[in-house]
Fold this sequence. Notes:
The protein is an alpha+beta fold. Helices cover 31% and strands 23% of the residues. It has a domain at 160-348 and 356-362: Alpha carbonic anhydrase (Carbonic Anhydrase II), CATH 3.10.200.10. Strands 2, 3, 4, 5, 6, 7, 9, 10, 11, 12, 13, 14 and 15 form a 13-stranded mixed beta sheet that branches.
Amino acid sequence: MMHRLPLVLFVSLLCAQVQARDDATPSKPIKQASAKEDASVKEDSKPPGKESKDKESKEKPSKESKAAALARAKEEQAADDIAAKIADKLAIIRKEKEEAKARSNPNPRPLLRNSFIAPVRKPAAMGNANGVSTIAAHSAEHWSYEGEGGPLSWGKLNPANAKCDTGERQSPIDIRDGIRVELDPIGFDYKAASFSVVDNGHTIQVNLGAGNYITVGGRSYELVQFHFHKPSEERVNGKSFEMVAHLVHKDSNGKLAVVAVLIERGKPQPLVQMIWNNLPLEKDDPVKALSTIDMNQILPTKRDYYTYMGSLTTPPCSEGVLWLVMKEPIEISPEQLAIFNRLYPMNARPIQKLSGRLIKESN
């Protein structure tokens, strides 16, 4: 116990000295580091070589993206060049094929255009001056009795009119040197019928209702229409007449027979006056009469006639028409003649060559 006491005293004395020395040393305040100093401390604390690696890692993606963009641009340019070359080659091949096709087909069909052409509308069928179903009034052919569309041009206006130039049995003719024979009389079976009047641009035409017939040569023909020419188209031994009425008939087979009634200046004609009373105000605009007409009134008293084979006297000048020309003319008044003259002062086809045709006449 006595031995431990000096040791304890020594330790206590040593601790007191140390405490006295610490109390004598003045304490300094602790200064907080700024953000900048913290950053510098952190930078200083990085291991050597780390900063260069960070810079390389930032610069590396930028360099790589530029290189990739440049590579893509080169690839796209190469693709465009290839496409252009292919297009040029295809154009050359197509041209060579077209040239080869043209050589193999020297007369190619014309290309169809997309433009639309409206079809030409034909005028309504009215029956021509000689009664066959034809184009009325101002047809596309523009034929007439004078000028460029006159009779000498009819055959050239339309291929369908070729007979006007080349036919050998054309009408009208100068009736002469006929053979006198006992001809069978024409059987007229005319009765009152409805009618309409039309100015078709070439003449005044009267269209008739059904029921009027003639019988000749054992055939029956129905009266379809009649119309007028001035002067008369027919001549008899060189003589012309003031006017003529052509009565157009058709049989069941479509064959035509035309009765021609010659007209001289004289006394008024009641049937003609009835027609003039119903004259239309406009061309191609038929006027349907309220009354009926009796065709017996336009026939001469004597029924002797000339006959021959001929044609229509208007385009298309079709042949195979039986002509029956009454020998005795009828009369109309100067006033009635003047009315038609105001509308059609001349609508007659010139005389055609006889070409050796046989003409027969009543004895």
